[in-house]
Write a sequence for this structure.
């Protein structure tokens, strides 16, 4: 019988996987499969393509585990792979193959009633962001507010400098605030940690955040 893998941080699980522990890698898959799908579906705008790219990303991660430095962030590493897979996908097929899809949010089955308003607001804000922001702006914003990556980690994923990422985030926040303020204001706003919805005033913070 396979021994259960103890709860570890992602980097420790990667180290165990490098040493040959399949359960450790399976735990990493469990942690990142949904996160990668939500990231990729925003870029491809096609659920089937996103699902395929998730599998390609995880296969590539498994095949290249020996190259991962466990002193660094596994999340940054695997999201970098995912973004490269997305770029390759568009080079091979072109954006014309994409179909429109809206952001969806998981429902908390324990208390769905209390989350309805927050879920609806999260969907609204992120769909507006998807419509009005450029690809790099949207991805940077998503990685910061949905994945809670640092500016340095986002820079690694996008292949940019930290200063460039700060500029992108500043412009993306300013653009989104401008669009949101032109629309009818929601009755309430929600902190991003509550449901993934970026709170409007958060986007107006300065470049040093």
């Amino acid at each position: 019988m396979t021994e259960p893998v103890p709860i570890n941080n992602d980097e420790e699980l990667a180290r165990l996987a490098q040493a040959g522990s399949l359960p450790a890698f399976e735990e990493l898959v469990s942690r990142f499969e949904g996160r990668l799908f939500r990231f990729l579906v925003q870029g491809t705008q096609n659920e089937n393509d996103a699902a395929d790219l998730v599998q390609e990303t995880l296969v590539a991660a498994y095949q290249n585990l020996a190259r991962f430095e466990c002193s660094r962030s596994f999340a940054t590493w695997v999201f970098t792979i995912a973004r490269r897979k997305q770029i390759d996908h568009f080079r091979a097929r072109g954006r014309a193959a994409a179909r429109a899809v809206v952001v969806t949010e998981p429902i908390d089955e324990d208390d769905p009633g209390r989350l309805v308003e927050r879920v609806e607001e999260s969907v609204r804000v992120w769909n507006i962001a998807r419509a009005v922001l450029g690809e790099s702006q949207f991805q940077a914003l998503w990685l910061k507010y949905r994945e809670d990556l640092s500016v340095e980690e986002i820079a690694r994923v996008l292949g940019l400098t930290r200063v460039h990422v700060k500029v992108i985030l500043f412009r993306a926040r300013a653009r989104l605030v401008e669009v949101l303020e032109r629309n009818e204001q929601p009755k309430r706003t929600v902190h991003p940690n509550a449901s993934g919805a970026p709170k409007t005033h958060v986007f107006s913070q300065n470049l040093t955040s």
The longest helix spans residues 22-44. The radius of gyration is 18 Å.
